[in-house]
Amino acid sequence: MKKFSPGYLPTLMTIPAVLIMLTLSVWQLNRYFWKVELLDTLNQQLAAAAVPLPSGDLVPDVWSYRRVSLAGTFLHDKEIHLFAHTVKGLKGFQIITPFVREDAEGTVLINRGWVPEHKKEAITRLEGNVSGVVEISGIVRKAWAKSYDFLPKSNADTNVWLYGELDDMATHLKLNVSPVFVEIDAGPVPGGFPKGGQTRVSVPNNHIEYFVTWLGMGGAMFVIYLVYGYRRARDTQV
User: Fold this and answer.
1) FRET pair for 47, CA 20 to 30 Å: which of 4, 8, 39, 83?
2) Do 125 and 221 share a domain, yes or no?
3) Considering only CA atoms, which of 231, 223, 226 is closest in space to residue 21?
4) Rounded to two decimals, what is the model's pTM?
């Protein structure tokens, strides 16, 4: 007397599907622990004391989110305007300015911080355009480009940029620059703009939710398969 008889086709459909869902749940769990480790590393780097930014070729992935220091002179006549998210309802830009190093060879693109739209042009905030050799500290950030082709493009002609397209910015400025940006730390600036300290670490870690979802779907499907198999066996014997 058969107590469990789900049939060939339901078994062929259910077992592989359940195995795939269980595999995905385990993968999501592994991603969760990887993300936790990544966030811990980022937080440690952000909290660490600043170290001198090396000159020459450096690996962006190694230096990303490291706190660094450097000395040099800003080229305010060559600043770049990177469109930024609104702050308290105000549209604005982040001001990226070439920085000719005094403590080492090379030029670095420095994100000096946020300004509202009416302060976009350098002439509207002359007091904030510090001159001479200065020492600064900040966070290293990698370049980034638009994610999808259908997204709008940056406009080098109007000097309005939508993405951190470092190579294109360097070409536009006709400069050889370091392969990373440095986002300057918050600090007092004459006139109040640009406002530094714009580094935001946004690394979502929703993998536990995904783990539970895939595990729940696989478990539910297997329970339905078991119920169906027992009922089919019972009905066949009636």
Assistant:
1) 83
2) no
3) 223
4) 0.75
80 in the same domain as 37: no
Q: How many CB atoms lie within 10 A of CB 61?
A: 8
Burial class (CB in 10 A: 0-12, 13-18, 19+), 166: buried
Residue 121 lies in a domain: yes
Q: How many domains does the chain have?
A: 2
Selection from 92, 95, 94, 104 nearest residue 76 by Cα: 95
Whether 133 maps to a domain, the answer reads: yes
Please tell me whether residues 94 and 142 are part of one structural domain: yes
Contacts 24+ apart (CB under 8 A), 212-218: 212/25, 214/21, 214/22, 214/24, 214/25, 214/28, 215/21, 215/22, 215/25, 217/21, 218/17, 218/18, 218/21, 218/22, 218/25
When pLDDT is cut at 50, 70 and 90, the band that residue 77 belongs to is very high
d(CA 126, CA 226): 74
- Whose tokens are 């995904």? That residue is 210
User: What pLDDT is recorded for position 25?
Assistant: 92
* C-alpha of 176 from chain center: 24
Tell which phi-psi region holds residue 143, choosing left (phi > 0), alpha (psi between -120 and 50) or beta: beta
H-helix or E-strand spanning residue 136:
strand 134-141
Instruction: Give residue 228's domain range.
Output: 8-42+205-237
126 phi/psi in degrees, rounded to 5: -60, -35
Q: From CA 109, how far away is CA 107, in angstroms rounded?
A: 7
Are both 72 and 176 inside the same structural domain?
yes
